[in-house]
Amino acid sequence: MRILVVEDEKKTASFIRKALQTEGFAVDACGNGEDALAAAGTTPFDVIVLDIMLPGRDGLSVLRLLRELGSKIPVLLLSARGEVNERVEGLNAGADDYLPKPFELAELVARVRALTRRSGETKSTLLRVADLTLDTLTHKAQRGTSTIELTAREYRLLEHLMRSPGRLCGRMMILEKVWDYDFDPGTNLVDVYVRRLREKIDADFEPKLLHTVRGAGYMLKETP
Ligand code: CA
After folding, report:
1. Whole-angstrom Cα distance, residue 87 to residue 81?
2. Which residue segments constitute the domains of the chain, with CATH numbers given?
3. How far is residue 143's CA from residue 117's CA, in Å, rounded to a whole number?
4. Which of 73, 75, 84, 121 lies in the 20 to 30 Å Cα band around 90?
5. Is residue 2 within a helix (H) or strand (E), and if so which, with residue range?
C-alpha cells in the first residue's frame, strides 16, 4: 500500500508520514500541487492525503484535475478551516473523505486505512481479451507477461475497445468516447491512433486482436 501525502507545512507532513509508516504504509510526500500531479501520474498510489491550502495550485484544484484526467485514486482532503462550504466543495470536486484540522493522527490513519480497503476493491477492474489485459485503475496494459506502454489517449482508445469485445466500434463512436468530439473532424485521427495501438498490442504477438471492419470501424476480438 503506497500513500502520497501532499502538505506544504513540513512539521505536519512529517507527523503524517511517520504515523502512516508506523502502520506499515509506504509513503511519498510532496509540498505543492504540481509535484502532486506529477507523482500521481507516474506512481499508482492507493490513497492520496491532500491538504487544501498549498502554495500555487491548491488542493481542490489538484483534485479536480485528477478527476478530469480520469483518476479514481481515493483522496482524503485535509482542511485548516473545516468550514461546511469547503467540505461540500471538496466532496463535489471528487474527494472520498474529508478531515478538518486539527485532527488526531489515529483518526487520520483509520480513515486512510478505510480508503485503502475501498481502493483494493476497485483494483479488480481488469479487462481481458485473450492474453491482453488492461487494469482500469493503474492503466497498466499487458500482453501475456509483456508490459505495454500507452499514452493517455491510447489508453482511452484501448479501454473503449476492450469494454466491447467482439462488437463493432464505429469511428464516430470512438471520436465521441475517446476524444469527446460530437462531430466528425474529417481527419483520419482514429485510424492513425488505431495503427499506433496495433503496433503496440499486436505487432509482436499472436493471435492478432485488433481487426478492421472495412468502411465501418474496428473490433477487438480473439479470432478474425
Ligand atoms: Ca498546507
Report:
1. 10
2. 2-122 (3.40.50.2300), 126-220 (1.10.10.10)
3. 28
4. 121
5. strand 2-6
Contact present, 51 and 98 (Cβ < 8 Å): no
Decide: pTM greater than 0.85: no
Q: What is the pLDDT of residues 42-56, one digit of tens each?
A: 888 999 999 999 999
| Alpha helix stretches (DSSP H) within the chain | 10-22, 33-42, 59-68, 84-92, 105-122, 152-163, 171-179, 189-201
Centroid of ligand 1 to alpha carbon of 114 (angstroms): 23
Do the bridges between strand 75-79 and strand 47-51 make them parallel or antiparallel, or are there none, so unpaired?
A: parallel
Residue bearing the bigger pLDDT, 186 or 135: 135
The alpha carbon of 67 and the centre of ligand 1 are apart by a number of angstroms equal to: 21
Cα 32 to ligand 1 centroid, rounded to whole Å: 9
Q: Is the pLDDT of residue 124 over 60?
A: no
- When pLDDT is cut at 50, 70 and 90, the band that residue 210 belongs to is very high
Q: How far is CA 44 from CA 72, 193, 209, in A?
A: 10, 25, 27
Pairing of strands 146-148, 132-135: unpaired
Ligand 1 centroid – CA 55 distance (Å): 8
Burial class (CB in 10 A: 0-12, 13-18, 19+), 3: buried
